[in-house]
């Protein structure tokens, strides 16, 4: 029987794949999207792995905040291998013209870098760039600083309290990716120059890092853990070459899954196209199936005959998708060149392609086996009357379809970086698909009721919409799902972009000031008042600043194992804290009561609810804080929610003012003012407070908006793949019903209908499908985007109504165009041959 099935399948395939073009396109599109996402992500992962040592700057690194390494720590590091020490702090750079800019100042020693190369323009080496010239230290500076301060190589500028000469342009640092985001252009100097500046003094914001080149054969991760255990209370932050850029790796994982999920959604949306193409093809083979049944063929032979054909064509569609998905990243690599922010090794990687291929084969099985089950039950009487269709028969094919669908969902969950989120997304797509399918049935039912009230082409269009071959039943779920994904992306993008460009500038400070000397705080306030006018709590706020570590909870040492890894950020590092005399404006009180001004009792603490929830803390519990070399036991008096993008005391920990009485603390301040006064204040502070760092939040928001726009364009383009899948399904529905449409058009012509009336009827039918599916898709997009914006990103909800209307118009317009195309194809045939063939 197997040989006979293969022989018959081979004979039928000789006629080509004309009936399977939509089938191939739907499979190839989804597989290509998944393969391209996986291959691109793997190229970035391999790029990170190949340059891990250069990205980290060695095999192992340790960092500390706001202090120097102790002699014991340095001795321990030196026993591990070759070491290089760097330090970093922020300072204000100022040119002779008065222009100022916050910079990230970095001091390096003579061994830097241990791995990779510092790329410079204007100097032969790092040593030459950083050497003294005429008693002034040299510096390598990023181009952005030269542009902002209107400097050229050889010019002098101030960096906080020190004078530097720009001797070279800093093109790139080998460990730049592992260091992450910087608030200002980077400037490199010799380590001893930065040490003498006073910018690394206790109480300021600084970091020190040691990078170590280990002997061959050493395990960097094991050595890092052993060193941390040797200095348990030192607050060392270890990183090794096995995970040189964890933030970039997590971003790659999440981006791969998001883009791959869009590809999977395209496969699901295109699944209706697959099912429709298989059903349409088997409908044309119905007479042949009936003849084979009349000659004695059983259901197994019929199943195997067409299962072989579908399997071969599915393999062809998957192969086409894999080729496109494998080639697309290679083209990206050629076009992008060296401009990518993350190193990449573009090549053909087997695992992403294998995963995409498995997705494609499972999708093909899930959506083609049910039509095959119907075809297997075709009786010999089908030679005289049409019978293909009806209810879904229970059998081996149906069971295979269910298992393939379950395998598709399981594979998506297992291969996702966060299985829970993947499960939620898969469930969301499944529910959305079910709702859209039900909506299609309801639309067909409703059209049957409404057509009684219509006349002319409208009545004919509504009758077609209610009929058994209605596009509402076949195309609306796929179109709606594509619109839903696009709407979700557009709504999330527009809300977050509005947060950056509109909401944040209204609610956040325009400027942030750090490193304000404690003994000059009053003079600083007066300088600000002269530039911006009399300050109010809504326009200016200054607070003392210190860093400390939560070392104990409820009288016991912190047990990090009892805290979830994602919430340990407040317990395994120093965090910023401040002091207040009483309740501030917009204090975010959730529970408890603020202390009164003048309070002089035992230390009281206001703590962020996120930290309290992570450790199970409540009002009245005791928290031990290690600050300035001593431990303070403070009782929790206030639980508060912090709006980090707002104008207020955005500190996770706030103590009463008596808790650190007598400590010489620096201050930080925030101000809200217009752009002109911002420039005036920046210039005035350059003369009177050159050591105070000025951060322009407005500039950072503008930069974030530009970056967001570029990312959003790429993500929106990827989401359009799902929309394309919906259009393919619409095309498949048109192609599947072409014969019936031609017969219908011929009958209408004979009965006296004009060409315009037939075109109008088809436009009404398909336009209604697009409008209904588009409206439902936008509603589902709203439902998916709102929790992401409000709950995940904690941003204000806003809607890009222009983008939403464009999506609706596009869905309705493209569907209407499809209807006109279907009518044109039907009208292109002469009535007599069409009716004679029936």
Characterise the protein shown here.
With 838 residues, the protein is of the alpha+beta class. The chain folds into four domains: 222 residues, no CATH class; 186 residues, no CATH class; 217 residues, no CATH class; 196 residues, no CATH class. A six-stranded mixed barrel has the order 2-3-8-5-7-6, surrounded by four helices. Strands 12-14-19-16-18-17 form a six-stranded mixed β-barrel. The two termini are 34 Å apart.
Key terms:
26 helices, 6-stranded mixed β-barrel, single chain, 838 residues, 6-stranded mixed barrel, alpha+beta
What would a concise description of this structure say?
It contains 26 helices and 21 strands. Helix 15 (419-450) packs across helix 18 (476-507).
Largest sheet: 6 strands, mixed, barrel
The geometry reads as elongated
Distance N to C terminus: 34 Å
- Overall radius of gyration: 34 Å
Task: Please state the structural category.
Answer: alpha+beta
Poorly predicted regions: none
Number of domains: 4
Give the averaged pLDDT, no decimals.
79
Measured by DSSP, the beta-strand proportion falls in 15-25%
Strand order of the largest sheet: 2-3-8-5-7-6
Let me know the number of strands.
21
What is the overall number of helices?
26
Percent range of helical residues: 40-55%
Helix and strand arrangement:
Layout: H1 2-13, H2 21-50, H3 52-56, E1 60-65, H4 71-80, E2 82-94, E3 100-108, E4 119-121, H5 126-130, E5 137-141, H6 143-149, E6 156-159, E7 162-172, H7 176-179, E8 186-190, H8 191-197, E9 206-213, H9 220-230, E10 237-240, H10 246-284, H11 286-294, H12 299-336, H13 350-376, H14 396-414, H15 419-450, H16 456-466, H17 471-474, H18 476-507, E11 511-516, H19 521-532, E12 540-553, E13 556-557, E14 575-580, E15 589-592, E16 604-608, H20 609-615, E17 622-627, E18 630-640, E19 653-656, E20 666-671, H21 675-688, E21 693-696, H22 697-736, H23 738-750, H24 755-792, H25 801-827, H26 831-837
